[in-house]
Amino acid sequence: MYLKVIIKNCSLIYYQRQRDLSKLRRYGPVFIGGFALFSSRKTKIDTSTFMAPPITPLPQLEKTPDDMKTRMELMVLRVQAEACKALEEEDHCNKFLVDKWERHDGRGGGITCVLQEGKVFEKAGVNISVISGNLTPGIVAQMRARGKELKRENPPFSVIGISAVIHPKNPMVPTVHFNYRYFEIQDEDKVVWWFGGGSDLTPYYLNKADAIHFHSALKDTCDKHDKSYYPKFKKWCDDYFTIHHRKETRGIGGIFFDDLDTPDRESCFKFATDCAVAFIPSYIPLVQRHKHAVYTETERNWQLLRRGRYVEFNLVWDRGTKFGFNTPDARFESILMSLPLLARWEYMHQPAPESPEGELLKVLKNPKDWIEECSCTDHQIK
I need a surface site. Which of 200, 249, 274, 376 has the fewest CB within 10 A? Predict the structure, then answer.
């Protein structure tokens, strides 16, 4: 009798297991697929190509993939890495020093990448910063003067940006600067935001083909978003990068914009992204074209004199430099990254009007429309 009970129980267990196995075969793929779908929602951020890990903790970025601050930080990290690698390929000598830093108050930091005394680049800096804090009443007053309706005197803010200045060794290769940033202020019950930035070229010797290529690349980028952007932002650039006490521009311009908050945040972000990505195709061909050019001591001295003008603008007139200096707990090493390794000042220096140096000064005192200078549709440097 006991034997029959044991056999019956074993048979019951066997049939139950067979039934469960059948259900698993039938519904298992559904369970597995659902689990895979659920797991895929939490995407991992690949940081392997960045110059350094993000400033914001990775778990926080992964939790807020749709937040504009997250998207902007990941964008500038990517552009920084691409720019540094493109410049290293041209230099064939030095690599970028990567300096990741944090603010003393723990509210953000940055990644400063600097290449110094290379074969092609005397000094190249590509810096990103992710900063938060509270605005000072003085900065709030400046923003109100620009039309920002801010109620609080020291509202919390966040700014994410990338800034680069490339000073080549050869005087025939122009200096270039670009920066793009996203600003966000929490003002009581609303968020005030905008994008700003631009890119401009500072040659030491005027080359029309270079100027046309650079401006055309920026115009093509602008035209993808709004046909009115390039003429408006080109004029803004000429006006902004003016050394007022010299009555001349710093270089031959490019584009510059600020307080951009229309038509919507997504459109502004895409525009800023495309402008940042345009750095490599707008500038690297100029490096490749001139980096092996022969030059004399006279041309080198003129380059150093023009770098002196670059320093004057950045320290006297640049709004970004002033904002950096006035930000509590500012990191001055990164702010002054834009200055050249070497510069020169001569008392009352004045080149001959018909000399190559004099020809450049004529354009710096009277900015030109470089798109009109292009007489053919194929303006790109091959």
Answer: 376
| Percent of the chain surpassing pLDDT 90 | 70
Q: Are strands 190-202 and 108-116 parallel, antiparallel or unpaired?
A: unpaired
Q: For the ranges 85-94, 150-159, 184-193, which has the lowest average pLDDT?
A: 150-159
Does an H or E element contain 109, and which? strand 108-116
Q: How far apart are CA 117 and CA 341, in angstroms?
A: 8
d(CA 252, CA 206): 9
% of the chain surpassing 70 pLDDT: 85
**Which tokens in the block code for residue 123?**
């000094």
What is the C-alpha to C-alpha distance for residues 92 and 112, in angstroms, rounded to an integer?
Answer: 20
177 in catalytic set: yes
SS3 34: helix
Nearest to 365 by CA among 283, 282, 253, 257: 253
Instruction: Read off the pLDDT of residues 89-129 as tens digits, 9 standing for 90 and up.
Output: 999 889 999 999 998 888 899 999 999 999 999 999 999 99
Between CA 236 and CA 92 the distance in angstroms is 36
For β-strands 121-134 and 156-168, DSSP reports them as: antiparallel
- For residues 329 and 230, what is the distance between their CA atoms, to the nearest angstrom? 36
- Which entry of 92, 104, 167, 177 is annotated as an active-site residue? 177
169, 118 contact by CB (below 8 A): yes
Kindly report which listed range (21-35, 124-138, 355-369) carries the lowest average pLDDT score.
21-35
Nearest one of 51, 48, 45 to 127, comparing CA atoms:
51
- 327 vs 13, higher pLDDT: 327
Verify cis geometry, omega within 30 degrees of 0, for the bond prior to 353: no
The distance between the two most distant Cα atoms of the chain, rounded to a whole number of Å, is: 122
Q: Of all residues in the chain, what percent are helix, strand and coil, respectively (each to 5)?
A: 45, 20, 30
Provide the 3-class DSSP secondary structure of residue 228: coil
φ, ψ of residue 381 in degrees (nearest 5): -75, 125
pLDDT at position 149: 76
> Alpha-carbon distance 194 to 252, whole Å?
26
C-beta of residue 290 within 8 angstroms of C-beta of residue 274: no
Q: How confident is the model at residue 43 (pLDDT cuts 50, 70, 90)?
A: low
Q: Tokens 């749709």 identify what position?
A: 66
**CA–CA distance, 324 with 120 (Å, rounded to integer):** 29
